[in-house]
Amino acid sequence: MKSHFLDELNSHEDVQSDEARLNNSLQVWTPHGSSYYNDPGIQADWHSARDLCRSFGGYLVTIRSQETLDFINGFKSVPADQYWIGASDEKKEGTFVWVNDEPWDFEIFPPTEPNGDTVENCLLLFGDSKPAEEKGKFNDMICSDEFRFICERNI
Ligand SMILES: [Ca+2]
Ligand SMILES: [Ca+2]
Questions:
Q1: 4: which of 40, 49, 80, 145 lies 20 to 30 Å off by Cα?
Q2: Could you tell me the distance, in angstroms and rounded to a whole number, from the CA of residue 130 to the centre of ligand 1?
Q3: How much distance in Å is there from the Cα of 83 to the middle of ligand 2?
């Protein structure tokens, strides 16, 4: 499936170099546990991030343990930034599901989150620039906003 993000890339004159750079960055995967992880180093809306991870044989990252959460928070190339993760409640408000249908058996929200009702349906990780009670934890956000993201794929 062709994403809006890739359409935008194709509108650029230097599309070849953009795509080549993206391809190259997505060739770099770091093993951890039973997965490989990749920080493409770009920002995209949640659906484009999801589609980009899929187009390279993976999926937008899933986080189902404190150990994985700690690893991902340490893996981010820009720790201060927010990062999309592979969960949304856009199909049923209040019920978050992972993009690859893994069980929803771990979540860690600050006391004030999730707070977006039907306006905020995609999850990200708060960056290290946030207050201590928020940083590194889940937050629902507007899906069309653009943030960094991490792709995962199975070993
Ligand atoms: Ca929601
Ligand atoms: Ca929120």
A1: 80
A2: 21
A3: 13
Q: What is the pLDDT of residues 96-148, one digit of tens each?
A: 999 999 999 999 999 999 999 999 999 999 999 999 999 999 999 999 999 99
The CATH number linked to 86 is 3.10.100.10
**pTM, rounded to two decimals:** 0.85
Is 18 part of a structural domain of the chain? no
How far, in Å, is the centroid of ligand 2 from the Cα of 85?
14
**Ligand whose nearest atom lies closest to the CA of 121:** 1
Which range of residues forms the domain containing residue 66? 30-154
